[in-house]
Amino acid sequence: MRIVVLAGGIGGARFLRGLKQAAPDAEITVIGNTGDDIHLFGLKVCPDLDTVMYTLGGGINEEQGWGRRDESFTVKEELAAYGVGPEWFGLGDRDFATHIVRTQMLGAGYPLSAVTEALCDRWRPGVRLIPMSDDRVETHVAIEVDGERRAVHFQEYWVKLRASVDALAVVPVGAESAKPAPGVLEALAEADLILFPPSNPVVSIGTILAVPGIREAVAAAGAPVVGLSPIVGDAPVRGMADKVLAAVGVESTAAAVARHYGAGLLDGWLVDTVDADAVADVEAAGIRCRAVPLMMTDPDATAAMAREALALAGEVRG
Ligand code: FO1
Predict the structure, then answer these.
(1) Which of 237, 244, 268, 274 could potentially form a cystine with 288 if both were Cys, beta carbons 3.0 to 4.6 Å apart?
(2) How would you list the strands of the sheet with 268-271, edge to edge?
(3) Where in the sequence is the domain holding 249, given as residue range(s)?
(4) Domain for residue 92, yes or no?
(5) Ligand 1 atom 9, closest CA
């Protein structure tokens, strides 16, 4: 069975671990968000691609959900000693090696998709990880500080500011002229199932869908499209998704996110049992909906969620 997953960072990566457990024989292709990418110290950092690669490859810092386990920060300390910032983004020594290899290969002319494939040769994530595009796309957030409006890089908004100020707009800079990376459209066309994991619907899945051709390919795909709500009980399970949802005028509820994607994209939507009252609303929008436990408390719970998504896909396909 060929499954394609549009994934962002932590939520998407954790879900993929459960999906692999639930469907061990499936051929899984992950279309990874690159809007979070940031250039630091002359290096290109791809947080969402690395979170998927490290999580499925066994190198992730489990508590954080990002970065490497058994990490040290000597290089970071030395950079700070030179007064070279930013200090608010925690790059560890082991993680630096990934960014050095990536930047070296990009500098040698390899596209990001080839670089990602090479990095995955080491990590063996057990899925095919393709960036949404080989072209540069960077999500910027418009905020207002001291009465003046300015745009900050997503990572500055997310990590430095902790999303403490309202996001007035979220802009995937460069998306309009980006092309899907090689293999992305083919994977969507050939998929037996397309999944939207509980990633951020705006800055992760929304950014992937903003690359011209990808939203259309998902909508036109013969495969059923099933999503899992990242919002449980009117609040994001993790992160500050509600902040960026507000920026695009979507209220922070499981039903609102389903409607945001729309019946043109989604065939099925899973909400958590606490949001069972949202099922009728989602079904009224033309999207088949079921209420099941959606907390990824451990790999078995996540695998159960993935099985529910597979079951719902069978229902809508039927
Ligand atoms: N998130 C934080 O909250 N603080 C950090 O210092 C931080 C550093 C970092 C370094 C590498 C990397 O791949 C991810 C990192 N993240 C950090 C997480 C990152 O902001 C998020 O994973 C995504 O961009 C949003 O999903």
Answers:
(1) 268
(2) 128-131, 27-32, 2-7, 193-196, 225-228, 268-271, 288-291
(3) 2-36+125-134+176-317
(4) no
(5) 90
Query: 155 CB under 6 A from ligand 1?
Result: yes
- Ligand 1 atom closest to the Cα of residue 158 is 20
Distance of CA 317 from the midpoint of ligand 1 (Å): 37
Based on the structure, what is the number of domains in the chain? 1
The CATH number of the domain holding residue 220 is: 3.40.50.10680
- Within a domain: 159: no
> For 24-65, how does the pLDDT look when each residue is reduced to its tens digit (9 = 90+)?
999 999 999 999 999 999 999 999 999 999 999 999 999 999
pTM over 0.85: yes
Residue nearest to ligand 1 atom 19, measured at CA: 47
Q: State residue 317's pLDDT score.
A: 83
Check if 51 has its Cβ closer than 6 Å to any atom of ligand 1.
yes
Bridge pairing between strands 27-32 and 128-131: parallel
> Closest residue (by CA) to atom 14 of ligand 1?
47
Mutate to test the pocket of ligand 1, among 66, 102, 208 (most ligand atoms within 8 A of CB): 66
Is there a domain that residue 109 lies in? no
141 in a structural domain: no
Q: What are the C-alpha distances in Å from 55 to residues 29, 65, 117?
A: 15, 8, 16
Q: What percent of the chain has pLDDT over 90?
A: 96
Distance from C-alpha of 261 to C-alpha of 201, rounded to nearest angstrom: 8
Place of tokens 């057990």: 126
Q: Give yes or no for residue 227 having a pLDDT over 90.
A: yes
